[in-house]
Here is the input.
Amino acid sequence: MSVAREGSGIPSPEAQRPRRKPLRHPSSAPLPSERRRAAAICRRLAAAYPDSHPALHYRNPVELLIATILSARCTDEQVNRVTDGLFSRYPNAASLASAPLGALEEALRRLGFFRTKARHIRMAARILAERWDGQVPQKMEELIELPGVGRKTANVVLGNGFGLSVGIVVDTHVARVSYRLGLTDQTLPERIEADLMQRIPRKEWIAFSNRLIFHGRRRCRSRKPDCRHCELLSLCPRVGLSPLP
Here is the structure.
């Protein structure tokens, strides 16, 4: 789950993207027709991807938090290969907090920025163990105080770990697909999230981001999107793409 900058030491992919031409003033409120189209997009996504969940492997909110921190600038498949062994060796926050840093670095060596991520997850686990009795807090403002955690990671954990619709997860897939769908003209994750929160029904926030990520991988790829077979084609203005032949 590639993400925007979630903690110090890991560069953001957004900084490498070309500037997009704005579609409308960012402060404009969505029209009723836009909200109806957004609701229709949610229904199409639900039909195409009925099983809505993150691709990361986890058994509890602590594991989801750690896996999501590790997913910065990595694919979910890469993270899953690492966390299967990591969670077996360190099954809770207390064991992870007391792990030698060198051992964590070795366990994460196959991931990008593994030294930074090793520090982040050990420090986060220590805070959980010392301040939250080994549990994950359920408030945005408390989560984003943890090392390596920003709004994106916090939204993943709150939504999928606790079923709390606080915001909408914005990763590189959500940013790309929502732009092509005309749901946002923004490039910064926080502004993309604000646009989506105005347009997507709140009850759909958690499932919407999970499904849009699947859709970005399956159909609306960065290069050569499969528009002809896209379930959303009739609802999509295909912003930024060449006309279909």
